[in-house]
Amino acid sequence: MNRNLLKKVLIKTLPVMTGYVVLGMGFGILLENSGYGIGWALAMSVFIYAGSMQYLGVSLIASGASLISAALATLMVNARHLFYGISMIEKYQHAGLKRPYLIFALTDETYSLVCNDDGPEGADPHLYYFLISLFDQIYWITGSLIGAWLGAALTFDSTGIDFAMTALFVTVFVEQWLTTKNHLPAIAGVVITVLCLAVFGSDLFLIPSMILILLCLSLGRNVLEKGDGGHE
């Protein structure tokens, strides 16, 4: 590991840091306002680290939901990670001892950073993926702890804080659109998602849309690779 690699990772993850610290704060505030302290925020951010599922987890814990209900909700909310994982099998297959953590820490934003970037020339790509994943989780943990502390120290209306996760997804989409020349995957994703939302409804559209997006991108892989000029 060298200073140049750490510098590259820090610069690469700065956009995620700005989002994760704020989003983590929102999670920590909601958790504290639901009656759960900073210890819960730390444990959930270290061992669950699931972004939107952590937001949903606040209401599940507060309502006393059963383990079965929590498991089904987790499957529905995080089903997209099954498809992320499939696309990262080749990248992560020789990661050795780093592989379990790379799998665990593959969030939406981390995926967007590592899927088309193998790090600086001459650097170990798996170490690069590991550091990006680690830095991103540290940002999230930091934000959640700050939020839990603020929630305990200050009293204010937290209505609307949970929308921050939706805002981050929009930000990631825009960043990918601006930095990638080939916009066909993004367009296909939006069109398929909208169609599935209309057909299956807001409660059931996620898994069908992800399956169709995966099929579309897999079948059109050759076309997409030919039309992709890489990153600017």
List keywords for this structure.
single chain, 232 residues, 13 helices
Write a structural description:
The chain has 232 residues and is mostly helical. It is 75% helix and 0% strand. The protein has 13 helices and no strands. The longest helix is centred in the first third of the chain and has 31 residues.
Spatial separation of the terminal alpha carbons: 27 Å
Quantity of strands, as a count:
0
Overall 3D form: globular
Q: Mind summarizing the main beta sheet? A: none
Task: Give the number of helices.
Answer: 13
State mean pLDDT (0 to 100 scale): 82
Strand-pairing-aware structural class: mainly alpha
Low-pLDDT residue spans: none
| Count of separate structural domains | 2
Which value, in Å, is the CA radius of gyration? Answer: 18 Å
Percentage of β-strand residues: under 5%
| Topology pattern, helix = H, strand = E | HHHHHHHHHHHHH
Question: Into which percent range does the helicity of residues fall?
Answer: over 70%
Compact overview of the structure:
The protein is mainly alpha-helical. It has two domains: 158 residues, no CATH class; 53 residues, no CATH class.
Compile the SSE list and pairings.
Elements: H1 3-33, H2 38-47, H3 52-63, H4 67-78, H5 80-87, H6 89-92, H7 99-104, H8 108-114, H9 125-153, H10 164-179, H11 184-200, H12 206-219, H13 221-227
